[in-house]
Amino acid sequence: MSRSHPHPIQLRSVGSQDNQAPLPLPPAIQNPSSHSWASPHGPLSWGLCCLLALQHILVLTSLLCASHLLLLRSLSQGGLSYSPAQILASSLFSCGVSTALQTWMGSRLPLVQAPSFEFLFPALVLTSQKLPLAIQTPGNSSLMLHLCEGPGCHGLELRNSSLREVSGAVVVSGLLQGTLGLLGVPGHLFPYCGPLVLAPSLIVAGFSAHKEVALFCSAHWGLALLLILLMVICSQHLGSCQLPPCPWRPASTSSTRTHIPAFRLFSVLVPVACVWIVSDILGLSATPLELSAPTEAPWFWLPHPAEWDWPLLTPRALTTGISMALATSTSSLGCYALCGWLLHLPSPPPHACSRGLSLEGLGSVLAGLLGSPMGTASSFPNVGTVSLIQAGSRRVAYLVGLLCAGLGLSPRLAQLLTTIPLPVLGGVLGVTQAVVLSTGFSSFHLADIDSGRNVFIVGFAIFMALLLPRWLREAPVLLSTGWSSLDVLLRSLLTEPIFLAGFLGFLLENTIPGTQLERGLGQGLPSPFSAQEAWMPQKTKRKAAREYDLPFPVPNLCTRIPQPLRCLCPLPEDPGNEEGGPAEPGETTDLLPGFGEQCPRSSGELRSQ
């Protein structure tokens, strides 16, 4: 193992302090808060991409199992007319299709799509309205699912109709989200979302899952702490260690062997594998009862609409879907900006935001029609993983989509994911959510945080976004307007911390007077990270902006689509490459950011020798 690398490395190592001579920084960017995140300078090898994709699937699994487990526990006691493994398989299939579409034609960022908590909280509100009073008490976590084989099973129709109604809300959410994207609403709003809008949203996104993380870690705190300790050691203490040259060769024609920062790159995969093995040896692995099935799931299953029944559309499902759409849109726009920042790209242009939200909506519609009670949205924990391992690639995102779709075709394989111990899932979520939280704090330096205006906006947005959901849970009398559908809408929105933080931050940021520099929008660039873009060379800006362009040959069709949908296409005046010609097909398919010349490096970056 070595901390130096005699040959140029493909992944820029960050944060090393031993035996390295940092490059001098231009005076304009000598900022102690500046970041230089790793990015491939050439296509990654297929073997390395497969391992990174498997790592992202483990993170996705933590969200998948957590959301489905908590939702199934909230339902009334009784049976299901189908196996929980089939629900997981349908959700995995939707996530795989949505991830591939998002990377290919959506935002074009390597974002993994997963069933986020923004779908779970409104779903819990909706299902709680149908429960009998006897089981609406808090702490009811001992419900047990079993397949019902006779017509006399108690709660069968209630449980099935509850899941169908949640699936209907997911379909409504996808339709509304897709409509907002097609109309270009995200692209029009995003330029007004500065650091004081994004930072509170990221901080609240990190805090919002603490209750669920504590719940899963409490199943065995020893395993959870062991996993967290290993992830911290691999990603931070051993992050700069390089393995000796290995036989993995880059996909390019170069024959240069490289040192691989394996501990940092696999700081999720290796700890999860180790703790999973330890828990199995100690006999601590157990599938949650809510996700287990007495009968074996089929090896092959082709998901299709109305497999069990069509989604149930009711007025309450409609209002729940509205709250889901608003919350997931807020969350996804934050993911776009954060992922672009981590990969040294300019903030996403309006057309990329609109396309991304449109295809996320399509993924949620597919999930709802397949019977899944969870839609698809850009995953904050997976973006946190990109920050943790400091590497991102479209090729990895494509492989994640392919593997998820493959697992969705086999409920038996999907059921294997439920054997991951709950403390492991909680530990993975805890570390990745903490990274998202830290990126929210780190973005404050882009604005004048000493300004009284900014201090009020940040404090008020964060505190109220955390207070209102807690107040609603602890209130002795539930919010009641006399119309159950409106009650569900208000309760759903008030239980969405990310939506509350984004909405309050956006409202205050754009109504309280303040200068552009004070708001972190200096240089006249209306973007959340304009200060980072200000020092980028012009050639780099142009080539970076092209990462959001549509893939060949789709741009040739933009002139033929209806005028209202032109918001999904880059504007004619958007910069191309330096020569002004179109990109070659696949030129930057596997590379993010894929710059021809590197961005200025920070003081923590290694010099390739």
From TrEMBL:
Chain intervals for the UniProt region annotation (Disordered): 1-25, 571-609
Keywords: Membrane, Transmembrane, Transmembrane helix
Recorded GO CC terms: membrane
Membrane topology: Multi-pass membrane protein
Residues passing through the membrane, by range: 189-209, 221-239, 259-278, 396-414, 420-442, 454-472, 488-508
InterPro entries assigned: NCS2
Domain of life: Eukaryota
Transmembrane keyword on record: yes
Compartmental location: Membrane
Primary residence: membrane
Alphabetized GO MF terms: transmembrane transporter activity
PANTHER family: XANTHINE-URACIL / VITAMIN C PERMEASE FAMILY MEMBER
Recorded family membership: Belongs to the nucleobase:cation symporter-2 (NCS2) (TC 2.A.40) family.
This protein's name: Solute carrier family 23 member 3
Source organism of this protein record: Pteropus vampyrus
